[in-house]
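Course exercise 7: structure representation. Students receive a sequence record and must write out the corresponding structure in token form. The form below is the worked example handed out in class, using Thioredoxin (131 residues). Read each field label carefully; the graders check that inputs and outputs are placed in the correct fields and that the protein name is recorded exactly as given.

STUDENT ID: A-19
EXERCISE PROTEIN: Thioredoxin
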Amino acid sequence: MAVKELTSADFEQAVKGNEIALFDFFATWCGPCKAFSPIFDKVADENPDIFFGKIDIDKNQDLANAANVQAVPTLMIVKKGHVIYQEAGALREADLNDLIGQAKALDVEAALAAAKAAGADQDELIEEHDA
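STUDENT ANSWER:
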């Protein structure tokens, strides 16, 4: 699937309309972002069942702030409306593919139930996206 450039206006639909969505928060002036971009694009083409979106933090500062993006690039993975991964830094292709495999394998409901049973704050483990 081709990577779609998102704005604050269409981010929520991307989250709610896809079982798994990967988001690359980037800046045009960022060297590591430029290095990561072709990797993100290639992996997107290899995974047509997953939504891939890019968010320019300079054009969408409100969204970057709401997502607590402190550095770029930041990769966010959302599954069934829950943020299951968010980390700054460019990834190698193999590492990105590994994360995608983990995201596909994760049973969100089971993870939430296990967190609740253990007395953990579910919002600390898996954030529900309210934007």
